[in-house]
Amino acid sequence: GAVVSQHPSWVICKSGTSVKIECRSLDFQATTMFWYRQFPKQSLMLMATSNEGSKATYEQGVEKDKFLINHASLTLSTLTVTSAHPEDSSFYICSARTGGDEQYFGPGTRLTVT
Amino acid sequence: QQQVKQSPQSLIVQKGGISIINCAYENTAFDYFPWYQQFPGKGPALLIAIRPDVSEKKEGRFTISFNKSAKQFSLHIMDSQPGDSATYFCAATANSGYALNFGKGTSLLVTP
């Protein structure tokens, strides 16, 4: 299957700082990438849909000014958590869609805000 | 509102047994139904997927059964192994280009 990477795999930051998470499709071009958030023992919650070269579409209840998404190229999307607070601590996962039906997920980024 | 309902929440199966996880949906526009396997601390991995034009798809020990009229689909894991112990998510989407609607997940434990 197609490979999606995320960096970093885990990050600890202080409250009030910003953190950037990268999502890359390594062996295919992804016109669409998705960002999810997952709390322990829960399902994945879609945060936003990111299309290359255009503004991301955010799900209801997700603050676009807090979770900045940039999809600068067909292989890279970034999620920046601005002014992070402890309640933003979570597991963030991106997925990328190939030209077909399949969506492949990255390994996730564990964010801890102290 | 959960668009895909998944059951059971947890499942314990003996090694060699069959694990069965069920999902149901309401949106008749859904036309792509994947299953994902997730290990703790990892991202979900695509296991197998089906479109509604077929009633069953098999890949190795994994089989999806699909009932379009009942709007239900299920994952069968044959000859379950301890290494299959993970959380399984069903999902559905319309037109494949849209985001996946996930079920709440099933935690599977396969005992030796």
Tell me which protein chains meet in the greatest interface and how many residues each side has.
A-B, 25 and 22 residues
Q: Distance between the terminal alpha carbons of chain A, to the nearest Å?
A: 36 Å
**H/E series of chain A, N to C?**
EEEEEEEEEEE
Largest sheet of chain A: 7 strands, mixed
**Cα gyration radius of chain A (Å):** 13 Å
Number of helical stretches of at least 4 residues of chain A: 0
If you average the pLDDT of chain B, what whole number results?
A: 94
What is the general shape of chain B? globular
Question: How many helices of chain B?
Answer: 0
> What proportion strand of chain A?
over 45%
Number of beta strands of chain A = 11
Distance between the termini of chain B: 37 Å
Give the mean pLDDT of chain A.
Answer: 93
Structural class of chain B: mainly beta
Overview of the structural elements:
The complex is a heterodimer of chains A (114) and B (112). Chain A is an all-beta fold. Chain A is 0% helix and 54% strand. Chain A contains no helices and 11 strands. In chain A, the strands form 2 sheets. In chain A, strands 2, 4, 5, 6, 9, 10 and 11 form a 7-stranded mixed sheet that branches. Chain A has a 4-stranded antiparallel sheet with strand order 1-3-8-7, with no helix packed on it. The radius of gyration of chain A is 13 Å and the shape is globular. Chain B has 112 residues and is mainly beta. Chain B contains no helices and 11 strands. In chain B, strands 2, 4, 5, 9, 10 and 11 form a 6-stranded mixed sheet that branches. A 5-stranded antiparallel sheet of chain B has the order 1-3-8-7-6, with no helix packed on it. In chain B, strand 6 (56-59) and strand 7 (62-67) form a beta hairpin. Chain B is globular and about 40 Å long. The mean pLDDT of chain B is 94. The A-B interface holds A 1, 4, 6, 32, 34, 41-44, 46, 49, 91, 93, 95, 97, 100-108, 110 and B 32, 34, 36, 41-46, 49, 51, 89, 96-100, 102-105, 107.
